[in-house]
Amino acid sequence: MEQGRIELPHEAEATPCEDRAAPRFTLLIRAAKLIAPSGEFIAVIRDVSESGISLRGFHPLPAGDPLMLELQTGERHRIEAVWDHGSETGYRFLDQVDIVRLIAEAGRYPKRQLRLNIAFPVELAFLGRRVAAEVVNVSQQGARIECSELLAIDQPLRIVSDILPEVRARVRWRKGDVHGLVFDDTFSLNQLALFAAGAQDPGLMDGPRCKVSLRR
């Protein structure tokens, strides 16, 4: 899949938000991170106003309280759900939002790939050996891991686990026991979203449109 491209589930458009008190702006499709009690999940912004926002997921989006929306600039907004139409959910902002700043994707940090803070054990396979490690966070392009083994910069290896397809990667940087890995083949946003849901809240994967292989 072409890097950076977003594929949405093939479903009919959901009913527009009933709350039209504030003007709404339809955005270019943009990925964001929904932080819920059960974990961190990928969603796509559909439209936004000063009072609220609608998100579409690659699976049913998690419920619960509190909920936080994190943009690719690192900006965070407290939100709560007000309606749910299956693949699309509407939320209201709990604090005042600068809508111009949000649409312009202006933030404290430059726009970057979404990183999901999901921790799980893995094995690193290289040079005929297997070494225990733990993934700390993961994105479409790479992961941060903790490993007591000193890994060389540019070291090629395979990441093996029960919940993630085998991934070929290389060591990009290291700092003590923490290493940054870059994947040889990146995940699509859809694959990463489904992996995150399955790893953190498996009940979200019960729908038929979630039966997508994570294999590349």
UniProtKB/TrEMBL annotation:
Matching Gene3D superfamilies: predicted glycosyltransferase like domains
Q: Which molecular function terms from Gene Ontology are attached?
A: cyclic-di-GMP binding
- Which InterPro entries does the UniProt record give? PilZ_domain
- Name all PilZ domain ranges: 19-94, 113-188
Family annotation (Pfam families): PilZ
What is the protein name for this chain?
A: PilZ domain-containing protein
Q: Which organism is it from?
A: Tsuneonella litorea
Taxonomic classification: Bacteria, Pseudomonadati, Pseudomonadota, Alphaproteobacteria, Sphingomonadales
